[in-house]
Amino acid sequence: MNISMLRVVALFFLLVLQSAAFAADITGTGSMIPGPLIKVWAEAYSVHSPTSAIKYKGTNPVDGIKSLLSKEADFSSIDMPLNISDLKKNGLMQFPIALGMIIPLVNLPNIYTGQLKLDAKTLGDIFLGKIKRWNDPAITELNPTLHLPDADIVVVHRASPAGVITVIGDYLARTHPEWKSIKGDGMAGSWPATSIEVQTTRENLETIEKTQFSIGYGPVNLAVKRGLTYVQLKNKAGNFVSPSDINVTAAAMSAKWDESNGFDVNLNDQSGASSWPLTMTSFVLVRKASEQSDRTKEILKYIKYCIRNGGLTAVQNEYTPLPDYVSTLVRASLDSKINGKEM
After folding, report:
1. pLDDT tens-digit profile of 217-259?
2. pTM of this prediction?
3. H or E element at residue 76
4. How far apart are CA 173 and CA 176, in angstroms?
5. Number of H helices, E strands in the chain
6. Backbone dihedral region for residue 129 (phi beyond 0: left; psi -120 to 50: alpha; all else: beta)
7. What is the rounded CA–CA span in Å between residue 242 and residue 58?
8. All domains of the chain in start order, with CATH
């Protein structure tokens, strides 16, 4: 074997070893809501790019950001966008990957999915303990044709630290007259005496499922799989709407998406006749500068691949793909980063 051939063989094995080491180390963490989709997309991407092994563990957005900033993770996911100041301060890039919904859920006898109607004030008053029984006039006025039980309302809610913004807390802070002054932009603080506090999304949904006369909330992808009963909500246009891909897309189409502000778009309470008022966006956060920029670029390639090719998979898993024009903006931004600009 001549020297040139030896060099080629050596280079080949060096590249194989680098790829193997690279593939084992791409990890993400953060919100549990997009977790199932991120994992399914990672499996598909591993076929497209066999040297890539992307792992994801759902925890919560706050811990996900901490892990990213401490370099324990390569990327994280969040449900509420960071503003451009926080992105710049922490050296992060932010990209929307899919849309979702938070939906109010009830467990009431002889009430089927989509039958019960609520508005923001009534929903907030229930969570604040101002409305205590299911046949309260505020609820019956919105639902004159339903036979609502004369029973105490049991509120099921997740534990939420003070100062943490949640999708539903932000929505109520925008739409309920007193919510922000009592609970801020989240779900912390006191709850009705009959409420049940849980720690995880799974426990939240399980508790609603087994507790008659309860009301709670959860992500649509997990709630639908359990067959839980959701309510209609009155949106900003004054229409009662159900959670659906069409209504979520309507909310996204009503918003202004702009790369220059880090795609900081909040889809809560968007205008539009059919917009679902509790629409959320799942975002992926990546460090802007990295000692291992090849890994960062591989994450960006993964995100681009998923946005471009993962729409059907998103729908199959009860998520909503980004609208085409948003997808085009995000992919163009990813291209500029992948090609070495603004990394």
Report:
1. 999 888 988 999 999 999 999 999 999 999 999 999 999 999 9
2. 0.87
3. strand 75-78
4. 6
5. 14, 12
6. left
7. 27
8. 3-100+282-338 (3.40.190.10), 102-251 (3.40.190.10)
